[in-house]
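Lecture 7 notes: from sequence to structure.

We start with a single chain of 242 residues. Read the sequence below before looking at the structure.
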Amino acid sequence: MNLWKRLLNLLLPPRCIKCGKILSEKNALCADCFKQINFIGKPFCHCCGTPFKSEKNLKFAKKQLCANCLKQKRHLFSLQRSCFVYDDFSKSLIINLKFNDCTADAETLAAMLYNAGKDIWDDQPDILIPVPLHKKRLLKRKYNQSALLVKYLSARTFIKADYLSLIRQENTIPQVQLKGKARRNNLKHAFAVAKPQNIKNKKVVLVDDVMTTGSTLNECAKVLLKNGAAAVYSLTLARTED
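Now the structure, written as tokens:
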């Protein structure tokens, strides 16, 4: 087997999933590309994960909350975390995974997600659920990129993956084509829980690729909580900057 792998690497050497540079291992990023990713690190809001823009030497409380979270009396999500900022550099990683059939990249990106979700894993969640695609869009795209991320996250965390309980019952207009209130209205009644017995009294981690306004994740969380989930967490690869 080792001989076969060496021969295969000679014929088809592993390459960086971003720039294509030859590497020593498969499905990875080269050092140069890794350095260009704008990872989200502390300090950030303990609840929603929004990065704080501040001087490096400014001290923050261990569980500091942002202004938006302080205003809210009830939070949909127990915690929200994202791996990196959605910018010109990271955009291509998302697009390749989502639209260009680079499904093998999901393993590397899920490893980054795993590191970003440390606070969530500490709370010992019960289920990983990908944000679902409508069956028509799934048939057209052939795969759900969020489900691929859940597959590899489940293997790392040993947390059960659930691909069937949360469904998208409305084939809505893609959110990227809408703004503001239209985004929220577009998703009303879009999601449903097909198997409420699977999520009742469970801590659920919702997994998606990008969080922009949060409308999609919010609607999923509302449906899950309404159907008996004990808590909902959000974990995404990227998030847009405010």
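The CA atoms of residues 184 and 215 lie 6 Å apart. Keep this in mind for problem set 3.
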